[in-house]
Design brief:
about 230 residues
């Protein structure tokens, strides 16, 4: 007997957190831009100490809030991702490539996390659509997944680079360059967020169909066995 679990609430929760993450990504971009403008004034010796203090305070508040939201988003996304992959393992005719535990564990294994999460998302995407549609129905391609994953990889590479630049910065010029790198990272972060929102929203309907289809079958089988 299949034992699918409803993933609708988890998808709604993660979408809310991703929307909030977009808001804080925009705020972080604005702050980095304004900080660069202030640093250019520092180079010209045209600034006040109060401006620097205000900038630091805003940066700390925005930064800590963004980190808190991102941590929550990571947790809720993995919960959604794990359940979506779990459900595939319960359905006859699905062909998941890996054990369901990899849906959460693969994100934390160095080097493997560059490939395995994408492969699992491809399984979720392909099998969820295939099993929820009629046999003759056309299935969506995976190009959206590829663009999302590419943006995610670039975002992480640029983000690590900008973080290292900020740590090593000793002058206003160094900080300006680090901020510019951060702004590029935030742009790719925004792209990745928009794309994963689209992916989850596109999966909501077939996930619901799959759950209802096999949940009703389970109920029928249970009544027959009684």
């Amino acid at each position: 007997m299949t034992q699918l679990k409803n993933n609708a609430e988890r998808s709604r929760n993660i979408l809310i957190l991703f929307y909030i993450s977009i808001g804080f990504t925009i705020l972080s971009f604005i702050h980095s831009y304004q900080e660069n403008s202030l640093l250019e004034k520092v180079l010209l010796n045209d600034y006040e100490d109060s401006q620097l203090e205000l900038n630091d305070t805003i940066g700390m508040v925005v930064g800590l809030s963004a980190v808190a939201i991102k941590i929550a988003a990571v947790v809720f996304f993995i919960l959604w991702f794990r359940r979506a992959y779990y459900n595939l393992h319960q359905v006859q005719g699905a062909f998941p490539s890996f054990e369901e535990g990899w849906a959460s564990g693969s994100w934390f294994v160095p080097f493997l996390n560059l490939v395995r999460p994408f492969q699992i998302m491809r399984d979720v995407w392909t099998d969820t659509f295939r099993l929820s549609k009629d046999e003759n129905a056309s299935l969506p391609g995976i190009s959206l997944l590829g663009v999302w994953w590419g943006a995610w990889i670039v975002r992480n590479v640029v983000g690590r680079y900008s973080f290292q630049m900020a740590r090593k910065a000793e002058t206003a010029e160094d900080l300006i360059f680090a901020n510019q790198s951060t702004m590029w990272s935030l742009c790719f972060d925004m792209i990745a967020l928009v794309l994963i929102i689209l992916i989850i929203k596109k999966l909501q309907a077939p996930e619901k169909v799959l759950y209802e289809k096999y949940h009703e079958r389970d109920v029928s089988e249970h009544l027959i066995l009684q």
